[in-house]
Amino acid sequence: MTQPPSNQPPGGFGAPQDPSQGPPPGMPPVPPQAPQTPPPTAPGPYGQPAQPGYGYPQAPGQQPGQPAAPGPYAQQPGPYGQQPGPYGQPQQQYGYPQQGQPQGPYGGYPTQPMYPGAPTPPPSGGGGLKGRTGIVAAVAAGAVLVAAVTTWAVVSGGDDEKGPIAGPTSSASTSAGPKPTESVDQGDGSGDGGGGDDDLNADRKPGEDKVAWLLKNDVDLPRNGSDVFGPWIVGDTVVKAMYKGVDGYGLSDGKRKWHVDLPFELCAAPPAPAADGSMVFGYAESAKDGAKCTELQKIDLKTGKAGWKKAVPKATGFFAFSDNTLAISGNTVTAAGTSSAYGFSLADGRQLFKGATTGCKPFAYAGGSKLIAAMDCPSGSAGKKIQAVGQVDPNTGKPKFTFQLEAGWEVDKVYSVDPLVVSATQREQKKWTIFALDAGGKLRSQIQGGKDKFAPDCGGSFVIFGKNLQGCSGVAADANTFYMATEGGYGKTNEVVAFDLGNGKAKWRAKAPEGRSVTPLRMEGSDILLYVTPLYNKGGAVATLAPTGGAPKIVLQHPVAASDIEGSFYSAGYAYGSGTFVVASGRVSASNDKDEMQVKTMMAFSK
Q: Most buried pick, 86, 254, 332, 390, via CB within 10 A?
């Protein structure tokens, strides 16, 4: 089925400018990097003032929105092409769902509507990275560092030729027994189709693994249906959340183990659960249309036990929006939106901190092994936007470093928190860049994409509309390498490209199986975990790719008899753990109640 468009712009991929090198021919020299001490009166932890930029937004004669030069990085149609597959961030086994909002390291990642006013994207695909940007100022440990970052446009002549430089947030009831039981086809090979469908294992071919189970919807939904959060795998349980409930199912048999009712509709979930398997969900404050997403409920995903509940303080002021997104890092769960940001104790819900209200103010966080903030900074002009990204202490919210982007550039997504890899965009100019920072917040590299179109699937909407900062499929990272898939599509063979985080250059390329597309989900030990898309004559698969490249190694081959169903899940989310792969629909809806109960919601594959 056709997915909503993704939020990745098609900008061109540029050759980065090494901070130690000068500007390209014809460009004025760049002032040398020099630590500067911000004024002692800088307000708040994020309050260091923005430094003036030294970048080159456009080359001579270049029109806004045009590539820097003709040749390898031609202008791609539309800003954010529709992307296939889930959202994956490297981390453990909690899965990668496509949901009504993006997610991160462990969880699912949805496809979402584009931002208002965005040009219509192409029917599929991502785009090359293109454009030119300005300086990004890095504010670290009280000093301001001016670092060089280019965007995705290059001068013709190859990857070694440098482009222009840039600087661089009611009650819940739990039942151990199931609510109305979803149909479960366990695919026992008898051909009777326990869930009412033909047995998907009856005609398995040699070398094919089995369908472990298949579920259908059992929830009476509103007229327009509901987004699905998840799936997440925690131990022997797989969890998904939808509408006004959170459910845990046996990973091996698909039978419901527990259910938690929420008083009002779900509206937010972190990309991944905490290390102990707990998660905090956001739900609406009432049943009214436009109700704000302010209520939090902790749930132990292993047992279904509901924990503390809390209301996020309501945003105030003329531009107050309660569009909270959630992230978990250590013992902290954050709830952040355009007007405010908070950190709460995962153990008991105590408020640990409130984000800065002056200077650079957090509007979203990415969680995991580190807590990363995206921030809006003072610009001195209503028509001028300045944003920053930085690491903060999850216990206090205080910044460890802040890296400020040049005016007009926005923090788009965090592809990885450790190492820190960030996507940034200029939406109006349709420019896109990816850069990496080191542990101290200094520029490490900018990814050089060459001629390729890349297709990270990040959901397709602003963080300000409640979409998580992290959670993209098609990307993964380890300590020294960033992995990204080229644009795929039905019957199209794509590639995984490995980029050296030390210099941003491609190290190797690995092709998908012929006629198939692969999507990196996360790291699996030292390997990259991949999802291989199904075809009409070939089931999907789970594969791994060595950190040195080569051919993907299939670890779970799904049966071709299930390929139609496997490929039919709308805006699908994925999870892999304990040798079982789970795919779940990212949204459930139908034209009438009868058809609504026939919608397939989740299925699993195993040995």
A: 86
